[in-house]
Amino acid sequence: MRTLADIAVPVNLPKTFHYSIPPELAGDLVVGSRVIVPFGSRRVSATVTGFPEKAGTAKLKSIISIAGPPLSPDLMKLAAWMADYYLHPIGMAIETMVPRAVEEVRPKRVRMLRMLDGDHDMDAIRGPKQTALFLLMSERLTVPFSELGKFAPSTIKALCSAGMLEIFEKDEEPAAENQSFTPDAQPELMPEQAAAVSTIGEAVARGAFETFLLHGVTGSGKTEVYLRCIGALAGTGKGAIVLVPEIALTPQLLNRFRKRFGSRIAMLHSGMTDRERADEYRRIREGSVDVAIGARSAVFAPFPDLGLLVVDEEHENSYKQDEGLRYHGRDVAVMRAKLRNAVCVLGSATPSLESSYNARSGKYRYLRIEKRVDHRPMPTVEILDMKTSPKASLFSPKLAAEVQARLDRKEQALLLLNRRGFSSVLICGDCGRSLPCPSCSVSLTFHKNVRKLKCHYCDHQAEPPETCPNCGGADLKPLGAGTQKIEEEVAKAFSSSRIERMDSDSIRGRHAYDELLGRVDRCEVDILLGTQMIAKGHDFPAVTLVGVVDADVGLNLPDFRSSEKTFQLITQAAGRAGRGDTAGEVIIQTLNPNHYALRHSRTHDYDGFYDEEIRFREELGYPPFGRMIKIEVKAARENLALDAAMTGRDRIRRLLKGKETILLGPAPSPIAKVRGKFRFQMLLLSKRRDLIHSLAIEARKTVEEKFGKKVQVLVDVDPVNLM
Ligand code: ADP
Ligand code: ZN
Rounded distance, CA 357 to CA 376, Å? Predict the structure, then answer.
């Protein structure tokens, strides 16, 4: 009989703990069992990872009870992989997969009334109310209290006291599922769609791991491809997971899934209560659903068997978790598919450089859809050089005229305000260039308090020049300044039109968002202003113009992916134009009309953009050629944070023997102070993942040992957010 268990406890320590198994649980435990254990003075939910032969210490604490259903072997393997890859304690990795609250939810109890057996003395019944209740109960025997509303508590109590009826409680049963559901009609697939569906279908049928990159232009019918592949899987007993960037932002997509799969789908999103989430998890575990749809964390949906994982808009940054265990939902999806011998499909109109590289090098299989479903042409894209526009205006006469034309024709316009509020980059008003770091090719950030330009990758420092080093112009100014004015300017210029703004400040919650989308859809809005939120996969037939008000903000962010993100954003935004019967048009305002990200988005030329961008990545050893780890050091005092970062740097330098790894920094993070904490960051770059992983672990350990709790060290593997 097993007497010892190795347990992963959700604490910030990179190890597991031994516990003894009480005899009454010995037969019930497996690897993956969720248990309650004492830890310090607390009781915590934890997970069995193994059954060792010998205990490490003589004094062992004992497992208290079972906490919930066990984790499947593939999820246990996935947790071990995440802990190892993202340099995070195993107990915390499991905690990331199983929301504790979900386990703690107990089924709701309902009050019931039942008839007791025996010969009842009818003479004890008084009056018509009690008689009616007695007759009802004689017929139905048990009735929930919710159906007894017309009887007063005193009536019920009287028959209970007479020994005829009894009150009891039981677990609420889940609502019966809608049986009479007819799925919507499936359209006939276009040839490229059909080819993708059959290739993916063959792979799923083989039951061997494979990853596909489904690269299809906006409106090419990728969603229909997912629906078909999942439809083919339904009924085989294998489940499917669909990840979407942000579930609240995809009501149209969810509707299409509902129409096809009815109640055999589970939705997982952050707006759910613990009880709702617990119910969805249970349905998934019991095999009552064919597909689970959700944001990032739905990748852990506990299907007993899994055939397919789809990551829609795989290039989206929101797949990367930005706190705790900083995993990338897309990469975890690929790994889960691998551990489960399942198929993973990554879909996008603008794939990330990483995924494209993997597809081109044969690691993923590449599926392309070049044509839109309805043969509608791609919108025309025009780039407006703002250097020739009146300086004071944020809005060129051309864009103003095009918006007016839409208003006159009762069509709609979208105006994209690309990433507001980042102004610590200097840009030349004459040539449009920002000032780049000579060794890192990212914009230098301007630190106002010390009047210095700094590279936040390598900490290169320079005095801000009087004139632009590129063209000699004297008009160097902080980027994006005065951009809040755009909304005012639009309101002034088109005062009689209905203008709405959509961004994370103005839209709070899913309801507000759905409501606004509905109004746009019903053409109750003429001009929709917003951040990248408005570029997401919506389908608004009356939108015929998309204006990108200031493309330079995105282009000049101090981030090596700024060109990629700008290209993606503009291409996605352009995909919103001309979905109805009128051809679409896109206008991009910039000081930098020859920038390759803009040139290639003008011609919808993904490959052209990829070829230029990938060369730059290769030259500097950035991903996908090199692996990157960001180490961030935070403290309440600036020199403490710097001191700690330097300690980490020195440790890495001593260990860094070969030339295979580059260490950049420490440098102040571009947003140097967040919530009262000063931040410094270092970047490790190498082709060898094992090397930078061990360097990061050593640096973190050294700093933590020396500075204790006064300093926080955060390790981010494959960082996406470099701000
Ligand atoms: P994507 O996900 O690539 O942007 P969608 O799957 O949303 O494209 O398809 C765009 C539109 O075309 C949707 O309204 C969809 O219902 C429709 N559609 C998709 N496939 C077909 C098809 N084979 N025949 C007709 N309409 C289709
Ligand atoms: Zn630099």
Answer: 29
